[in-house]
């Protein structure tokens, strides 16, 4: 059945009744029009209101040079529900993280972050409470204060980039959250018996390069990223059985050549050196991380079983809370314990810019110092 509306325009069901206007029921008139490349959709109770809105927008387009900006802002608000934090982090990863020296590490964190509930929240609607809940979840999972702080800072920088570079009108929810402190510097070293058990499990890893890179790390005190980037063409053997390795694109921006002990050279000579060269340790950061974590779990489990069989209580610290980066602490401390290097020489090997930073990576055992005192 047809109805005759104002000005004699024929309407039936949901049909276009005027330019840019569709009637959807007796009291629902929808305006649909394009403005500045963006679609506008508004609904009114009467045809006159719909026409007035349509005509006002048409006039505004002609008179207001900033109309396109207004419409763009309106569209962004409409898209708020579909543009999630996960999507924003994906863009951040491609445009920002990819240019960082620590891109692999940060991309790993972003990938992990995108699996949490907070990543499903709209980028425009994420609140400080959402961030606080996320950090609380990480704490329950056993993550350190410093680790949780790093994840929060990634989210915060993503929002700052969105405002300053992407020109999005959005508030940074992290700005109103009290972040965990950096915490005390780590002083974890390999204790008596840990190295042997750790190495034994690393030897069982599927990738044959896992054990060598761990042993090599303890010898040269290099960062994980530096080791994974090391190329065969940058390794030189000397006649006395030692050698050198040149590390490029390091964390502090300076290339450096580090000495290789005879033990470090033996580790390299035990690897296959392709004719065309390439990476000394062809491993991804993800595979290396997983292999080290699994080896530590197996070593700890084996230790606990032995303690159980012997009727002893296992130490709560043995083979626990150990990370790959702790090997750099171990190696730096061992360089000092050799008693043949001064602070400047050790800094030249490790690449530390200041003696204060070098001190953070040096953890001499009181027992060893006591022996030197006699």
Overview of the structural elements:
The protein has helices spanning 47-63, 67-78, 85-95, 103-113, 128-140, 145-164, 194-202, 210-220, 224-229, 262-269, 285-310, 326-337, 343-350, 355-360, 366-373, and strands at residues 3-4, 10-11, 14-18, 21-24, 29-35, 38-44, 235-237, 243-247, 256-260. By secondary structure, the protein is an alpha+beta fold. It folds into 3 domains: 3-78; 85-176, DNA polymerase, domain 1 (Orthogonal Bundle), CATH 1.10.150; 194-373, Intergrase catalytic core (hpI Integrase, Chain A, Orthogonal Bundle), CATH 1.10.443.10. The strands form 3 sheets. It has a 4-stranded antiparallel β-sheet with strand order 3-4-5-6, covered by helices on one side. It has a 3-stranded antiparallel β-sheet with strand order 7-8-9. A two-stranded antiparallel sheet has the order 1-2. Helix 7 (194-202) packs across helix 11 (285-310).
């Amino acid at each position: 059945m047809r109805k005759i509306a104002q000005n004699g325009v024929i309407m039936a069901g949901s049909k276009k009744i005027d330019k840019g206007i569709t009637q959807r029921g007796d009291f629902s008139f929808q305006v649909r029009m394009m403005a500045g490349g963006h679609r506008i959709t508004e609904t009114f109770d009467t045809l006159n209101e719909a026409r007035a809105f349509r005509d006002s927008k048409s006039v505004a387009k002609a008179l207001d040079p900033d109309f396109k900006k207004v419409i763009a802002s309106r569209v962004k608000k409409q898209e708020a529900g579909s543009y999630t934090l996960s999507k924003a982090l994906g863009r951040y990863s491609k445009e920002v993280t990819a240019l960082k020296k620590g891109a692999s590490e940060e991309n790993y964190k972003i990938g992990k972050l995108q699996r949490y509930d907070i990543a499903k929240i709209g980028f425009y609607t994420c609140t400080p409470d959402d961030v606080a809940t996320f950090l609380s979840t990480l704490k329950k999972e056993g993550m350190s204060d410093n680790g949780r702080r790093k994840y929060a800072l990634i989210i915060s920088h993503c929002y700052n980039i969105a405002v300053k570079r992407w020109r999005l009108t959005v508030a940074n929810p992290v700005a109103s959250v009290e972040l965990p402190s950096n915490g005390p510097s780590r002083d974890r070293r390999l204790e008596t018996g840990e190295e042997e058990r750790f190495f034994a499990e690393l030897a069982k890893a599927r990738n044959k390069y896992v054990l060598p890179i761990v042993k090599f790390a303890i010898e040269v005190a290099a960062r994980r990223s530096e080791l994974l980037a090391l190329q065969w063409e940058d390794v030189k053997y000397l006649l006395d059985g030692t050698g050198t390795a040149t590390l490029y694109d390091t964390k502090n921006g300076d290339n450096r050549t580090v000495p290789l002990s005879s033990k470090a050279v033996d580790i390299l000579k035990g690897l296959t050196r392709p004719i065309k060269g390439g990476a000394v340790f062809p491993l991804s950061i993800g595979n290396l991380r997983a292999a080290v974590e699994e080896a530590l779990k197996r070593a700890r489990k084996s230790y606990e079983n032995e303690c159980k069989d012997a009727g002893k209580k296992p130490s709560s610290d043995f083979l626990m809370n150990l990370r790959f980066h702790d090997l750099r602490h171990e190696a730096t401390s061992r360089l000092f314990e050799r008693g043949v290097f001064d602070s400047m020489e050790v800094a030249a090997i490790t690449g530390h810019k200041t003696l204060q930073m070098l001190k953070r990576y040096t953890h001499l055992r009181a027992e060893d110092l006591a022996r030197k005192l006699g």
